[in-house]
Amino acid sequence: MPDPLRFLVAESELPEDREKRRRSAGQSSGESYVETLCSLVPDATCDQVKPAEEDSPRQDAAGIARYDAVFLCGSPLHVYERTPEVERQLDFMREVFRSGTPAFGSCAGLQVATVAAGGTVRSNAHGHEAGFARRIAPTEAGRTHPLLAGRPAAYDAPAIHGDEVEQLPEGATLLAGNAVTAIQAAEIRFDGGVFWGVQYHPELSLREIAQALRRQAETLMEDGLARTPDDVEAQARLIEALHREPERRDLAWRLGLDRQVTEARTRQTELRNFIDRLVRPTRRERRGSGA
């Protein structure tokens, strides 16, 4: 039998944010990512690193190259605030590119890869995109790109973010966007590496989206997406109920969702495509060349 795939999950929550997320969602962003990856590839080996933290061991290109894929989680850090934590994230991502290991990132993961390769990120021009990104449309390039294989001409996806990619780096390919966030999916090639990323969260369950809304209730009210904490709570409860009973058409109707979100397998489309259409072929090429 072939060796199992080896995944490296990079978690960029700082300790305080990590514990806050564990208290509400039951696990950190990295732990959530590992759980989803293990459901997609049960025999995979998943290791975690925390590149933003000062005392975390530095990962270099040679070490990263021992993995078949790298996954970058979401993060409350703002990439345009060039703090030591952010600089360590960017250094890690540059080593990922240099290693030639296929990489995938969601939300802040896309933003980190963008800045590491020379692009820019800003605060959302249209305010928060919270709960779900609506009517995401593939570009002409995205309609034939393997990352979005199986996605229709317009689809929704779990999302919650206050920052967005402003400009992709030179040579990157825009794959999808919507009216709120122009860059929802992209491919970035830089320094010998390939990155596929999305601004939304194919790795998250609906329950985690509900908890994320609760954690950011104050910000959502400031942005005018809710008037009171009760408004946020009502929306979160609907989403949680759909998580428990995804077959309930009445809940999906009230939330304006279809199977692109309600079905876990469809919701995780980009992750499966990345593994099947980039990670596995790259591994075979590396094995064939003796790398």
UniProtKB/TrEMBL annotation:
It comes from Roseomonas elaeocarpi. It is an enzyme of class 3 (hydrolase). Residues 1-32 are annotated as: Disordered. Residues 49-211 form the Glutamine amidotransferase domain. Gene3D superfamilies: 3.40.50.880. Coiled coil: none annotated. GO terms for molecular function: hydrolase activity. InterPro entries: ChyE-like, Class_I_gatase-like, GATASE. SUPFAM superfamilies: Class I glutamine amidotransferase-like. This is Type 1 glutamine amidotransferase. Its EC number is 3.4.-.-. It comes from the Bacteria. Keywords: Glutamine amidotransferase, Hydrolase.
